Amino acid sequence: MLWMQLHKNRNSNTLAVFVLFFLYSYRPSSASGTFGKADRNLYFPDQLSTLVDSCCVIASTHSTSAKQKAVLAAASRAFAEESTVCVAHLAPPFDNLIEGNSLSDRLVYFPHREKDLSCLHPPPKVKPIGEPIRGIFSSSHLTDFVNSRCGTYRQLDGSVNSAGQKRADLLRRLYDVPEREQEEDDETESECERISPPDKETFYKEYLSVSKPVVIENALVNWTAVKKWTNEFFYDHFGGRKVHVKLSPDGDFEGCESELKWDGRDKRQMPKHIRDQMTFPDMVVVRPATTDVPFSAFMDHITLRERTSKHYSRIARSGNASAYLEYTSIPTYMPELEDDIDPMPFLPAGMSREHLNLWLSDGNTLGKLHFDPFDNILAQIDGVKELTLFSPHHNERLYEGYIPEAILDFSPEHGSFSRTRLLQSTALVMSPVDIKKPDFQRFPLFRKARPLKCTLTPGDALFMPAFWWHEVQSRPSPVTKRNLAVNFWYTPFLTKKFPCLSCKLDVNRAMRHLLDDY
């Protein structure tokens, strides 16, 4: 006999859908796996691949012990209010479906196979592999397991747990840039809040958890780097070390422009099913040219020193070209610099650093409008950065989507750039809107976009939450003729799928422990 229960709740905001399989008993009508009428709703392994495309699955099998089946039956009631809960049993054969190809008396977990938005090709057909669930001794243990793996927030009685209540509250309070008093008032701009270094609880509750940018003043007072990292320091300690330099003819880095400016566009081979998914297939994201030179040659260029080395001439002959050390990993290329910078003391324990980058230029650079899928601390050491931010709550106004990529070429012999390399890849985090000269005819929704202005001077640190759109104008120090900053990227507390116009921020499963800490 098959027992199957399906629950639907259209009002559920739960990101992960959880499906439970349980069968009290079944009797196949023959060894070939044919089932009688009573078993016609039984899910077979060949149906599992389709199922995991929409569900996080917990399955019992004919080898699952009676005790574990009872645990599953009790725990399933906790998820009756989720968008879909189905209780049934996974029928054999199980070849290659379970990790290690071995059955036991345990339940089996199959993760929800979410669509990979970073790839526009149809996903390959991959057989799901289940993980035997270990250490489950009670229905409360199983409920906790499902919550952690499937993104749910339930107690055994089906009510929302305390972490889920906190999540719901903070999602209602997410920060957004205030509306303009008049739609036509383009001069009205909001400014970033500026504060003294906060304590951990204040930072979490008022900024991190509600996705609110903030400038922390005097955040670098204890950094050795502030006084130590002079131009002469970089010459003396890293002058002979090769660095990967980005080059742009006009100081703009990674903006969007018409494909018509590029040679060879007629030869570009882009499959129709890929091009059809591009909102603006006639545009390209322009990646900068690159060159590898000694650090001393790069420093010569940005500080306008007169040098005669062949390495210096490779970039000096480019005239007005801007050279930039951007996204330069300190742990990878200059690990000794880590001793001169301190983690921000206001960050909650448990935040995981993903990247630590150095940003160094002549200060005449413009990083075009984009977002990053990390929580960001941008620490300004020298020069000024003027940032224009837009919230991630109105992505349709910034036209989030897929844009083809191209990369500039640079000729050291002639000191010139060319536009010939149209790539097969697509950018996922760039906006096609030029916010300094917006084309409202093509991008009419941008009229409703509300900017937030944030200015960083030496000693300031900006907390910029993940997925906030930003354009960064750098200005040089009048003394050192440079702009120098460090940024920390952390696993985001709030995350979303991208590129996706309608996807909303939600608590990152990897960071949900903070809901219990504060």
User: How much β-strand is present in the residues?
Assistant: 25-35%
Extended strand count:
27
Gross morphology is: globular
Question: Which class best fits the helix and strand makeup?
Answer: alpha+beta
Termini Cα gap? 48 Å
Considering DSSP H and I runs of 4 or more, what fraction of the residues is helical? 10-25%
**Helical segment count:** 13
Radius of gyration: 27 Å
Which labels suit this protein?
single chain; 9-stranded mixed beta sheet; 13 helices; disordered N terminus
Task: Tell me what you see in this structure.
This protein is α+β, with helices and mostly antiparallel strands. The chain is built from 13 helices and 27 strands. It has helices spanning 45-51, 66-76, 139-150, 162-172, 200-208, 225-228, 231-238, 272-275, 295-303, 310-316, 330-333, 395-398, 513-517, and strands at residues 5-8, 18-21, 56-59, 84-87, 108-110, 131-132, 190-191, 194-195, 214-216, 242-248, 252-253, 256-258, 283-287, 289-294, 322-329, 353-361, 366-370, 375-382, 384-390, 403-411, 416-427, 452-456, 461-464, 469-475, 483-490, 494-495, 506-507. It has a nine-stranded mixed β-sheet with strand order 8-9-23-18-25-16-15-10-14. A six-stranded mixed β-sheet has the order 7-22-19-24-17-11, with no helix packed on it. Helix 2 (66-76) packs across helix 3 and helix 9 (295-303) packs across helix 10 (310-316). It is globular and about 80 Å long. It starts with a strand and ends with a helix.
